[in-house]
Design goal:
The structure holds 2 protein chains of 2 kinds. Chain A contains 10 helices and 2 strands; from the N terminus they run ααααααααββαα. The longest helix of chain A has 18 residues. Chain B is of the alpha/beta class. Chain B is globular and about 55 Å long. The chains are: A mainly alpha, B alpha/beta.
Chain lengths: 178, 364
């Protein structure tokens, strides 16, 4: 067993990483094993984050026919690893970035929908929630009012944006022409 | 035609001497060890090594079916806009090996390739069905738990089935396949009572995921041949896999299909996105860890299955539907395991109830 593998095993033991995930880590080529170790140390990955990173790296590797090392060397990821912010914040951001790589069109579509919702400039008291992972076609709109007049104002604001809401629902339904 | 290899042929004593067992022993007996057992259940459930399903595909068991042959499509649910399909279970498991196949989960505990020697009992079940609803028409298919034609050159089940169904006006039989094994069909006149349907996927999916199946071009050529032989033809774009570049590939496939078979000659189309339970996806990835088609942008739907997220799959459905709409003749079409809302988005109208759709597809 070389030093790199010993260091990986040591970290896995301390993090109580399930054996199947340790095996998967050790199955990566040397540069992939090393890059993930560097990432896990730099960002102090917790067990769940290591598991998620290994799953995402595996799936991206198969999807894109590339290696874990090449994925982790991509500039957006490197910038997050070496950039500012706390370790937990950067760890969270790195995993989000890996998810964006793994689900590129979902990420792009969700981004367009979020931008469309932000552009509505709705008053405080109205929250618009997209379905988790865009898995359904249901847009949730929440109203929070503490007085009848306030409720009237929110309802008026909603009605005023009726056309825009229809457009957002059409986007969720796959309509590219809106 | 694809030749399938077997490691073992196991015949239950109760099936010894049956027409089906004789055909199989005659075809494979010289090259494959044949054994006879009093109860085949042990053989079908045997532990079959690290890949029970893969091993099971090479272990053909001839036995009597003890459960009914005829049932509603197992995919049907009040959650979906269904097509009223009835399935006839004449075999379980399949010699082909598609990486996304639901059998990897469905027959995980019972993985041997089973084929039922008492298949003629299913004829009485179909007669009973007709008697129970006089005047109605039914579409009954054999391709649910096995490819309808994968071993047909040996089993000749299609011959028995066609001879039964062609005299029954209330029944339309559907053979669903990914093969080009149509020689037996071409010997018979189905008298309008038989649809042969093909699952169609672009070359990228075929090469990556549909192991030991005929190529998409060969399937289309086979469809043309049976159409010329008096059969109705249908096509299942199911599973549709929304990989990068899928839309262009699927549209090219549609063009290839329509250049061989005019729209007016197509009895129906179905579309359905790849859907997998998390357990199925795990099983599939264990068996096919390098297949990128198993790793699309699927997210968990409310029915517990992973599907491409809504906007992505609706876009793909619509692109195909629009291309078929421009083909010059309306083709009946339905979605498999999708909600009424998705159906409305794709076709622009609410779906009819399952019995009505089933009857419409049966009548053609």
């Amino acid at each position: 067993m070389n030093d790199l593998d010993a260091e990986i095993r040591d970290l896995a033991r301390r993090r109580r990483l399930p054996p199947a995930y340790l095996a998967r880590w050790l199955d990566l080529d040397q540069s992939g094993r090393s890059a993930l170790l560097e990432l896990a140390r730099a960002l102090k990955f917790r067990t769940g984050q290591l598991v998620a990173a290994l799953d995402l790296l595996d799936e991206i590797s198969v999807r894109e026919q590339t290696s874990a090392a090449q994925i982790l060397a991509r500039p957006p990821l490197r910038r997050l690893v070496t950039g500012g912010g706390s370790g937990p914040e950067r760890a969270h951001a790195v995993l989000d970035q890996l998810r964006a790589i793994r689900f590129p069109r979902l990420h792009e579509t969700a981004g367009r929908l979020e931008a469309a919702i932000a552009a509505l400039r709705l008053p405080r008291g109205i929250r618009v929630l997209l379905p988790r992972e865009l898995a359904s076609d249901v847009l949730t709109i929440q109203l929070a009012a503490s007085a009848p007049g306030e409720l009237d104002q929110l309802l008026d604001a909603l009605l005023e944006k009726r056309g825009e809401f229809a457009r957002i629902l059409a986007m969720m339904g796959g309509d590219d022409n809106v | 035609m694809i030749t399938f290899e077997l490691d073992a042929l196991i015949v239950e004593e109760a099936s010894r001497g049956s027409a089906l067992a004789d055909r199989l022993v005659g075809a494979f007996g010289a090259s494959v060890p044949v054994s006879y057992v009093s109860d085949a259940r042990e053989a079908t459930r045997a532990k079959l090594g690290a890949d029970p399903l893969g091993t099971g595909k090479r272990r053909l068991v001839v036995k009597q079916r003890r459960a009914p042959f005829l049932m509603s499509c197992p995919a049907s649910s009040a959650k979906f806009a269904c097509c009223g399909y009835l399935v006839l279970i004449l075999a379980s498991n399949c010699p082909m090996d598609c990486s996304y196949c639901f059998l990897q989960e469905h027959v995980a505990n019972n993985p041997a390739f089973q084929i039922y020697s008492n298949f003629c009992d299913s004829f009485e079940e179909m007669e009973q069905l007709a008697r129970s609803a006089p005047g109605r028409h039914f579409r009954v298919g054999t391709g649910e738990l096995a490819d309808s034609l994968a071993l047909d050159s040996v089993t000749k089940l299609s011959v028995d089935l066609i001879e039964f169904v062609r005299a029954r006006e209330h029944l339309t039989l559907e053979f669903k396949t990914k093969t080009d094994e149509i020689e037996n069909l071409l010997e018979l006149d189905p008298r309008g009572r038989v649809i042969v349907s093909w699952t169609l996927s672009p070359d990228a999916v075929w090469k990556s995921s549909e192991h030991r199946t005929a190529s998409p071009s060969a399937r289309i050529a086979a469809a043309r041949a049976v159409l010329d032989g008096g059969y109705r033809v249908g096509f299942h774009f199911d599973p549709m896999i929304a990989y990068e570049g899928a839309e262009g590939d699927y549209l090219q496939l549609v063009d290839q299909l329509l250049s061989a078979i005019p729209a007016r000659c197509i009895s129906f189309l179905s579309m359905g996105a790849l859907r997998m339970t998390p357990e199925l996806r795990s099983a599939a990835r264990r068996r096919f860890p390098h297949d990128p088609m198993l790793l699309g942008e699927e997210v968990l739907s409310s029915d517990g299955r992973l599907r491409a997220f809504g906007a992505l799959r609706v876009r793909l459905y619509r692109a195909l539907q629009e291309r078929f709409e421009r083909a010059g003749a309306p083709i009946p079409a339905y979605l498999c395991m999708e909600s009424r809302a998705v159906h409305e988005r794709v076709f622009g109208l609410a779906p009819a109830n399952p019995a009505t759709i089933g009857e419409r597809l049966a009548l053609g």
